[in-house]
Amino acid sequence: MPSQELVRSLTDEHVLRALMHHRRLTRAELAAEIGISKPTAGESVRRLADRGLVADTGERTTGGRGRGRVGSYYSLAPAVGVALATVIAPEGVVVECLDVYGDTVARAIRRINRPTHGSQAAAALTAAAAEALASAGQPARLAVVSAADPVDRATGRLVHLPDSPFLLGELDPVAVLAPQAGGPVIVDNDVNWAAHAERDAARDFAYLFLGEGLGCAVVSDGEVRRGHSGLTGEIAHVLTLGPGGRAVRFIEVFGELGLRRDGSTAIDVERLLGGDAATRAAIGQAVGGVVAAVVAFADPLEIVVGGSWGPALIDSIRAATARMPRRAAIRPARLTSEPVLAGVRAEALSRLRSAITAKD
Amino acid sequence: MPSQELVRSLTDEHVLRALMHHRRLTRAELAAEIGISKPTAGESVRRLADRGLVADTGERTTGGRGRGRVGSYYSLAPAVGVALATVIAPEGVVVECLDVYGDTVARAIRRINRPTHGSQAAAALTAAAAEALASAGQPARLAVVSAADPVDRATGRLVHLPDSPFLLGELDPVAVLAPQAGGPVIVDNDVNWAAHAERDAARDFAYLFLGEGLGCAVVSDGEVRRGHSGLTGEIAHVLTLGPGGRAVRFIEVFGELGLRRDGSTAIDVERLLGGDAATRAAIGQAVGGVVAAVVAFADPLEIVVGGSWGPALIDSIRAATARMPRRAAIRPARLTSEPVLAGVRAEALSRLRSAITAKD
DNA sequence: CCATTCTAGTCAGGGCCCTTGTCTAGAGAA
DNA sequence: TTCTCTAGACAAGGGCCCTGACTAGAATGG
Q1: Are strands A72-76 and A82-89 parallel, antiparallel or unpaired?
Q2: Which positions of chain C lie under 7 Å from any protein Cβ?
Q3: How far apart are CA A94 and CA A122, in angstroms?
Q4: Touching check for A286 and chain B: CB below 8 Å?
């Protein structure tokens, strides 16, 4: 019987998924919801209870909907575990424990004093994860991590690219979190997660991040595309229209305009936002060249502009792109508060649910 | 029994797939190959024969492998049909009928006298398809079409972009072929299909097409990505490094070097290939800028260079990209003879097989 | 030349999973 | 107290597949 028990596992999967969305159901409600018979629903619940995935909540239907025999409510057991949603930024780290319903059941924060020194971030990460897990009281099943630096797709390590700020320093989030994650550790950079959170808008779009650093995420056919080594969207070296009509690398435009912080590769956002009309036009031109490239290579329905100064200069960008032969709608990012965390949460929830239903 | 017959359809699917790869098998061989019992294999064959998908070939095992009772060979019936693999180029159209084994069972060619006049191409297409289908003697199930112009993803129609040669003219391959295709008509441009054919090399790469026209295909996570409207890879307007260090649109570089054909937007390949060292270096610089952009937005493992003059200038391109902060391996295209047709054939075969196994 | 050997295909019996239909338990309504 | 209504359990049955035994029929080999 090679594929006979497949149908049984399918039934169990349906039951788990129904409980994820309705939190608690009686066996009769499960049968009606899924479209299976009551005996089948009962058997499935028994199996899942034996495996520790489902438990009788102790609640009874009495007092709810009229007469009839009382029913027992079942729900997912705490043993199904939580997912760690983690954001590592230069200011500090956030670790949240998400349960299977998407609720944040615990949260811990640690500040980092010396960024660009990986061991600081690693220590903060371990401590925050320990605190959050202790507070949640449930086992972790996996971790989804955002880091404010380019991430190597194969290893999950942060990589230092020339001319790009290296905010967090040498850090291997997979190695740091593996002991606490209880499963896979998925790492990607913050821009990609922010794009992930705006994914419902379109199946093909680009997210242009314009802040202290420069980044871009490409969403194609509904998924964030990372490329071979995970460096899709590292746009510092794209050739664009610089001052005087010269072809200049994108990041160098800001140097030539005197908008890079001294002794750093980061952009001085304050000075940039206080710039005059000519400066804003020059920046708009430069961004326009990048837009032309992303239009050519990603053909997005729209271009979402985020970051600390991108939305403020959106008119200059629109003006620069208005004359281009091919255009794409340019709009500011929709999510303004914690877009990165929103994307990380969404992925953590989706993966946690898959891990539970797919398991064995 | 909501999902009970799922396992039966799975069995049938396995049988069909086994027959696609082995062409003819006895029921006992099917059972051994798939890992099911002989009675189950026999039942499945009976069902599929009733549906007309499988037929006794009349061949018997006698004379082959020693003693024992003779077995009956079964194979897929001709009624499973063929896929139309179609290439539309300015010179003419090719229509091939591919059977489920990937063999070309019929082929028809029509020349086109007046390109850029869509009705000519449409007539040639209809005639070639009719000839090929008559010769094949099997019903068509779907068509996969390559066109040497940008293709609108939503409609399958050819689109005219500014500064890009419009070789075939207004043409709606879906409408033209629908009556003969017997199913869906999938249309994409030639560069994407050529990239499709090189897909086994890597899951993330870019295919740079440098010929009379300029194009690029982006393969990400193993699939050719088309973008929202299907115009991914239309690189004529990417800003790059032009003569004198100015930021120039890619296509304009060729105009400034005097390499565009008079009265047309096409590149004069002969003159280009006869150019001096300075010209080749200038072209290499310009292509290098495009490479920088594709590296930033697609992060390919390698960049495959094809087209009529691309491979010939690969050293100039490599020299221009050698100094770039981020690099990707650049290599000439592997498939040189009919890469487009190879990609179209591969997709047609894959879709034909899916259509047969998924049906009902 | 005939018994042996070996394989393709069929038949019978049984297990698994689900379904329908019936029955029991037990709470609210009359 | 009796009726009504629902959650859940139990029994019977059907679909699909498997194992094991059986039949048919050709080549081998003494």
Answers
A1: unpaired
A2: 5-13, 15-21, 24-29
A3: 12
A4: no
Tell me if chain B has a CB within 8 Å of the CB of A262. no
Q: Which tokens in the block code for residue A344?
A: 């990380």
Query: A302-306 and A329-332: which strand pairing?
Result: parallel
Buried b (16+ CB within 10 A) or exposed e, A248-257: bbbbbbbeeb
Contacts of B294 in chain A (CB under 8 A): 297
pLDDT at A2: 60
Which of the 8 DSSP states describes residue A51? T
Secondary structure of residue B107 in the 3-state scheme: strand
Locate B350 and state its tokens: 């894959």
Q: What is the DSSP string of B103-163?
A: -EEEEEEEE-SSTT-HHHHHHHHHHHHHHHHHHHTS-EEEEEEEESS-B-TTT--B-PPTT
A345 within some domain:
yes
- Beta strands A54-60 and A72-76, pairing class: antiparallel
What distance in Å separates the CA atoms of residue A302 and residue B4, rounded to the nearest whole number?
Answer: 44
One domain, residues B103 and B163: yes
Q: Are residues B218 and B275 in the same domain?
A: yes
**B296 vs A6, A234, A245: nearest CB:** A234
3-state secondary structure of B181: helix
Q: Is the pLDDT of residue B59 over 90?
A: no
Number of domains in chain B: 3
Pick from A125-139, A185-199, A297-311, B261-275: least confident: B261-275
The answer to whether B27 CB sits below 7 Å from nucleic acid chain C is yes
CB B174 within 8 A of CB B185: yes
Domain membership of residue A1 (yes or no) is no
Residues of B in contact with A252 (CB under 8 A): none
Is the backbone of residue B66 left (phi > 0), alpha (psi -120 to 50) or beta?
Answer: left
